[in-house]
Amino acid sequence: MTAQNFSTQPPESSPQIPWAKNAAVDSAQAGGIRLENITKSYPSRTGEPTTVLQNLNLHIPAGQITVFVGPSGCGKTTSLRMINRMVEPNSGTITIDGVNVHEKNPYELRRGIGYVMQQGGLMPHRTVAQNIATVPRLLGASRKEAQARALELLNVVGLDSSYAKRYPSQLSGGQVQRVGVARALAADAPVLLMDEPFSAVDPVVRTDLQKELLRLQGQLAKTIVFVTHDIDEALLLGDTIAVFAEGGRLAQFGTPEEILYSPADDFVRSFVSRSVAGLLDEQTVRQARARRLATSREAQNGAVEGEKSE
Asked: CA 33, CA 80: separation in Å to the nearest integer?
């Protein structure tokens, strides 16, 4: 598959988000996402509850990528799915820019939060354009407006208009994920949830998608929560990283440098050392941060050039 780039030009139009009235607020002024005293457990066959999360307290900064990383079953996906109320906590409070999500209708809430799943989650009986246009239509856009939005977003994620009439079965794994990102951006929501979105594609495509996500984020500055089990991916993508331990314990929350050079405990130290690459040294992190800066500058320069040409 040839590498395709996300457009660095911001979408020209977006539908009205029903709950996030401050969607266009400067990220420096926004409150981000707060999870306070969150606990979650499920009943087990023995009758004793199985704890998934233990008194989780976390502030996810606005306009940044926060990565949830940890082994399987540690509660990272459960935490992400609580933000859009696909899972409800036993106790605790979650707010987005100061708005309590538990006071909002869950269906309206989800229409104002982008969500990208591991397998794309596209509706197989609908075309690419129809998949992307679903949320704008739900938010009241006309069929013509929703179609225009879909074509606009295909360009944003590096796919030309010829893909609009294709069905998900006619796409490669990387193309499915691109369409999934386009659909998540369709409402221009300030928050984007990504649940292991690149884990099902091959390493080459995965690297392309990671780089392009950074480029897109450099332009749009969404509040992104990204779930992965791969510490290398977390170090590359995350402005901040939440390391979850088994039993639903938040072991550490900090920058990539803090996670790598100042692990909070033996679990974090051991988890980082089990990196797939096995080369998590100072040079590796410097290279990852340099790539972040380069893609961000490239996006900003592209936006400036676009303005000049207009």
From this structure: 11
The architecture that CATH gives domain 62-77+112-240+255-309 is 3-Layer(aba) Sandwich (3.40)
- Over residues 135-155, the pLDDT tens digits come to 888 888 899 999 999 999 898
Q: Which residue has the higher pLDDT, 227 or 205?
A: 227
Contacts of 39 (CB under 8 A, 6+ apart): 51, 53, 54, 55, 56, 89, 90, 91, 92
Kindly report, residue by residue over 8-61, the tens digit of the pLDDT: 343 444 444 333 333 333 333 447 999 999 999 988 888 788 889 999 999 999
* 253: three-class secondary structure by DSSP: strand
Spatial separation of the C-alpha atoms in residues 84 and 104, rounded to whole Å:
10
Q: What is the largest CA-CA distance in the chain?
A: 67
- Contact (CB, 8 A) for 240 and 45: no
